[in-house]
Amino acid sequence: MVLSVLAGLCLAATLAMFATGLSDLRQMLATKSVENIQFLPFLTTDANNLSWLGYGCLKGDGTVITVNAIGAALQTLYILVYLYYSPAKRPVLLQVLLLLAVVVTGCGYFTILVDTGTRLAHLGLFCSVFTISMYLSPLADLAKVIRSKSTRCLSFPLTVTTLVASSSWTLYGLQLHDPYITVPNVPGIVTSLVRFWLFQRYRPEQEKPYSPLPA
Question: Is the four-CA dihedral 205, 193, 78, 80 of positive or negative sign?
Answer without folding.
Answer: positive
